[in-house]
Amino acid sequence: MHLSRRGLLFGSAGLAATSLAGCGADGESGALTGHTGIAMPTTTSDRWVVEGADLEKRLKGFGYETILSYGEDNVEMQIEQIRSMIDKGVEFLIVGAIGNDSLGAVLAEAKNKGVTVIAYDRLILDTPDVDYYASFDNYEVGVLQAQHIIETLKLDEREGPFNVELFSGALDDNNSQYFFMGGLDTLESYLYSGVVQIPSDETEQEPTSTERWDRGVARERMTQLLDDHYGERKLHAVLSPYDGISRGVVEALVAADYDPKSDDFPVVTGQDAEPLSLKAIKEGTGQSETVFKDTRKLAEVAANMVKAIVDGGTPEVNDLGSYDNGFQFIPAYLLPPVDVTAENYQEEIVDTGYLSEGEIDEAEPDQG
Ligand code: GAL
Question: Which residues does UniProt call coiled coil (predicted)?
Fold first, then answer.
């Protein structure tokens, strides 16, 4: 199980990629105004809500007009929203895609009108009409999650076997495969040596996937796995790619009488540093790790890409060879993800002003 790893990853920023941009939304060259459509995927996960607002604020701060929309995990709705932005004359689109390969037709319309397209966090596939990609090192996210399991269970010092189950994200999100690969590659040697075993035998992306990254879908699968494979057996860890999924997994474990306060509660990983997951991490009541992606920096990178073009330059990128969208490698700016546990959440999350202790302590429980 090995997808192509990274190609050319440039450590330092500063490469200039050739941009197709430079003509106005009406196709005539001339001064750009920075008018930007921001198409975010959903309001069901905290990060997109915060980032949509952050992007608007930054772009407005540059004096640009913006249109912000949320597709609520509905591909058709997102396509309509993007089409309406094009009709309203945007010169730039920043898109957090829902269906990674469903936007070809609408982006062709955008390109006809000279719109510059920035894929935001999630790469858009199978279209020649994506100009830039702003994201994190997604493979590394999976590596960090798997390393947390390896270190917490001390797999290098013990023989096992330890029972682990794998979860992956939405199949139509291009990021899912990177998270999954990073995790699986990192666990691979422990699987070969038998220190780790996966009782369900579900080790491919499809059977482990979680539609819409949905917590309830994850809870159901975990419940089923426990019923089918863990009668007498004990589960030791769950590789989970995202906090919402992790909380669904924990709910299923608790329902099956695993005690979240006990030391031998399964190790559950996560991603996105959501307040409710951080609360559990801090209090030691379930999930024990999350991967923090400083989305303030991502919004800054994407907004600066727009500004660079409006100012007549080219956006800064630091990767030209990792993300092939089926047509070409997309010039990308990738930010580093950070492993967060009870030991360093204060330093990484609170001290950097991402969330306050209060926001973590008072996080609203999930509904439904
Ligand atoms: C992914 C993203 C993750 C997480 C997930 C669910 O595309 O990279 O950070 O937010 O979507 O929203």
Answer: none
